[in-house]
TrEMBL record:
Boundaries of every O-methyltransferase dimerisation domain copy: 234-308
Stored Pfam families: Dimerisation, Methyltransf_2
GO biological process, one term: methylation
Alphabetic keyword roster: Methyltransferase, S-adenosyl-L-methionine, Transferase
Domain O-methyltransferase C-terminal positions: 413-557
Stated name of the protein: Methyltransferase
SUPFAM superfamilies per record: S-adenosyl-L-methionine-dependent methyltransferases (SSF53335), Winged helix' DNA-binding domain (SSF46785)
Organism: Streptacidiphilus fuscans
GO molecular function terms attached to this record: O-methyltransferase activity; protein dimerization activity
């Protein structure tokens, strides 16, 4: 029996007719036949039918625009890259995503009441003679994997999105991928319609404006649960990703690339001293990770890849070199830690990582730069109420002195950064608040690097440097900071560090502790991965907020509040406990 496959033009016309005729209240029960009246009203109130989607394979985009015009649609409508469908096609057909230039066009189509809708046209141009692309086109035309109906959620809210996902699942819809498209700042959730659906489309999309990757993560995890072998295989190749990124950074390839214009592989190879074919294969893999983007002319850098440039303001290149270097090697000894409870890094290198780095100035500098590479975590800290209050008090005291009022001048307010590394955080605070002064406590070789950095930032004149360890916490400060320090140590050492801080703190002083806090509800968090990292490489750990509160209490401190920071960080605000 021969199966007649509709032409792209016929499928396009059918999608246009469907969009013109359907409405949300009638369509939802066709897609989810088990909906009761209350559920239908709740869904119809929170989402609206917005478009039907079709994937077509014109010889050129100009030919597609002619087809749109022939259907009575706007042939000049704007186009955008489709990240989600591109990646799905690449995964389904085992192809490099960089080879698939999938575009989205959304010509408007009015609904039955004149409401604004569209037909979403995904287009992968298949020029004559493109055999590999023609194979994809033939398969997709037959299977119609990407044809779907979409409902837009006009008032996105994480709680509503989770509830809608649960409702779809309860009525037999199965999570079927999705993604965040940065070109449009929109998040999509795909579902396979239940087997008893009565619509002609087998897939459903929820489209939400904005970045909702937190909810999307749960959606994709649900999809992965249905594909255990594929999921495990991808997890097992995670080490390849680390080394690919580290090599990319080590060879300084990002610094030879542009974010707007593609650079040919042979040009890049000459610039960085690499083997052209091997570099091309590395870039092809990185394109699947959205680190670079491939075009017919070569590769360009994405926003993700740009973070690996050496001179980028928020460069994460040092992290790539650390995670692909000494920490990569020590993670190979993770089994030793799990078997014995002893630190893998110490076992491999024969010394604690702080001592090991101290003996190697270049490695020590790389470590300090890698710590500073997560500086985005610090951005909100300069506006923390404790910091702004200290800055305000310093300003008031200075103004009083300027006015000749000697009764309220006082000393400048001081921020004490305990084990402050190369001064990245302290420099940000002092730069944002010119009336504050700072004290940085660190090891000898680190202090000199911090001095240079703070001088370069223009705030070194307001900073004092103290060489020492945790027993030497300077007294008399107004704000004390422990940034990513406590997670390096076991509970006993943390108590000792906190007691040293408490002894140095005047009664009015505040302590700000910056750490990744472990969630207690099992929700995804970088803290969970970093806990494993601390166990393997340092002998420390990440902790829950309650765990930190107990450590504070043991040191005579009380947890006042906790505020979120980027990169799954938190700032824990503590003060001296009453009567301490």
């Amino acid at each position: 029996m021969m199966t007649t496959i509709p032409t792209d033009a016929a499928r396009l016309r059918a999608a246009v007719d469907f969009v013109r005729e359907q409405d949300s209240a009638a369509l939802l029960p066709l897609l989810l036949p088990g909906l009761d009246g209350l559920e239908l009203r709740a869904l119809a109130d929170r989402c609206r039918f917005s478009h039907a989607a079709v994937l077509v394979f014109p010889p050129t985009l100009a030919a597609l625009r002619a087809d749109l015009t022939a259907c009575g649609l706007d042939g000049d409508v704007a186009e955008h890259p489709s990240v989600v469908v591109r990646d799905r096609l690449a995964a389904r057909h085992g192809r490099d995503a960089a080879e698939l230039d999938v575009r989205i066009l959304r010509p408007p189509v009015p609904g039955p009441e004149g409401e604004p809708r569209c037909v979403e046209v995904f287009a992968l141009a298949v020029p004559p003679g493109s055999e590999r692309l023609a194979e994809i086109a033939a398969h997709e035309r037959l299977r119609q994997h990407e044809a779907h109906l979409a409902f837009e959620v006009p008032r996105p809210d994480p709680l509503v999105l989770r509830g809608m996902r649960a409702l779809f699942a309860r009525h037999g819809a199965v999570a079927d991928g999705g993604g965040y498209n940065p070109h449009e700042d929109g998040t999509v959730f795909y579902f396979t319609a239940p087997s008893d659906a009565k619509a002609d489309y087998l897939r459903v999309e929820l489209y939400v404006h904005g970045d909702h990757r937190d909810v999307l993560a749960a959606h994709l995890a649900e999809q992965s649960a249905n594909r255990p072998a594929e999921t495990l295989l991808r997890l097992l190749t995670g080490a390849w990703t680390t080394q690919a990124l580290s090599t990319f950074a080590e060879l300084s390839v990002p610094d030879a690339m542009d974010t707007e214009v593609a650079v040919a592989v042979d040009v890049l190879a000459r610039a960085v001293g690499a083997h052209p074919e091997s570099l091309a294969r590395l870039l092809r893999y990185l394109a699947t990770l959205n680190v670079v983007a491939g075009t017919r002319d070569g590769f360009r850098l994405t926003g993700v890849g740009a973070l690996l440039r050496a001179e980028s303001r928020m460069s994460m290149r040092p992290l790539a070199l650390m995670y692909g270097g000494p920490f990569y090697r020590s993670f190979g000894e993770l089994g030793h830690t799990v078997r014995t409870g002893k630190v893998a890094f110490d076992h491999l290198f024969g010394a604690h990582h702080f001592d090991h780095f101290a003996r190697d100035p270049e490695l020590a500098e790389l470590f300090d730069r890698s710590m500073a590479a997560s500086a985005r975590m610090f951005e909100p800290l300069v506006a923390h109420p404790v910091v702004t209050a200290a800055a305000g008090a310093a300003g008031a005291a200075g103004a009083a002195g300027d006015n000749g009022d000697t009764g309220n001048t006082g000393a400048p307010r001081t921020v004490v950064d305990v084990a402050g590394g190369n001064g990245e955080l302290l420099g940000r605070i002092l730069t944002a608040h010119p009336r504050l002064h700072g004290v940085l406590l660190e090891r000898p070789h680190v202090v000199e690097a911090a001095r240079r950095a703070l001088d370069a930032a223009g705030c070194g004149v307001r900073c004092r440097y103290q060489v020492g360890d945790f027993a030497d916490v300077p007294a008399g400060g107004d704000v004390y900071v422990l940034s990513r320090v406590l997670h390096d140590w076991d509970d006993d050492r943390c108590r000792a560090i906190l007691r040293n801080c408490a002894r140095a703190m005047p009664p009015h002083a505040d302590l700000l502790v910056v750490e990744r806090v472990l969630p207690t509800d099992g929700s995804p968090s970088l803290a969970t991965a970093w806990d494993l990292h601390m166990m393997c490489n340092v002998g420390g750990r990440e902790r829950t907020a309650d765990h930190y509160a107990r450590l504070f209490a043991d040191a005579g401190l009380a947890l006042v509040d906790r505020s979120p920071l980027p990169l799954d960080g938190s700032v824990l605000h503590a003060r001296k406990a009453a009567g301490a």
